[in-house]
Amino acid sequence: MYQGLPVIDADAHKLENPLVMREYIEPEYRDRIGLVIDALGDQRARIVDFNPATGKNDFMRMFPQPQGLGKGGFRNLHPDTTLGAMFNRQRIQHMDQEGVDVHVIYGTLNLIFSSLLDKDLAIALCRCLQQLHG
Q1: Could you give the C-alpha distances from 54 to 51, 58, 59, 86, 129, in angstroms and in order?
Q2: Long-range residue pairs from 62-69, CB within 8 A, at least 24 positions apart, any chain
Q3: What is the pLDDT of residues 23-40, one digit of tens each?
């Protein structure tokens, strides 16, 4: 509460853990999602998409994209806030610290599913998150 008014964060995000998602995704897609370390040493989600140039599933994509302005996040995952985005108990502690009463929570990794070239992979990822979050 701030001066008797509830404080609402209308753009909070849930950060899905690709390693946990592997437990819920259909087995034939399991090796196409995971984590990777970029050139700066930062951990990012990895999705192996269809590559039209080769006709194979060998197009590695990283999220958030490491290229910087206009192309994605550049070191935008701060360790403290990332923990809150992944773990609800930590999120609630952060909300209490900052005086936030309500979060409207959106997924994060799922925002890129519509950009995947392999539609069957995108559907499998959606099903996975539906099972994960029930």
Answers
A1: 6, 8, 9, 35, 29
A2: 62/36, 62/38, 63/109, 63/112, 66/38, 66/39, 66/40, 66/42
A3: 999 999 999 999 998 887
Give the relative orientation of helices 88-98 and 79-86 as an angle to the nearest 10 degrees. 120
**What is the per-residue pLDDT for 73?**
60
Instruction: Render 55-89 in DSSP notation, one character per residue.
Output: TEEEEEEEES-TT-TTTS-SS---HHHHHHHH-HH
Quick: pLDDT tens for 62-94: 887 766 555 556 566 777 777 888 888 999 999
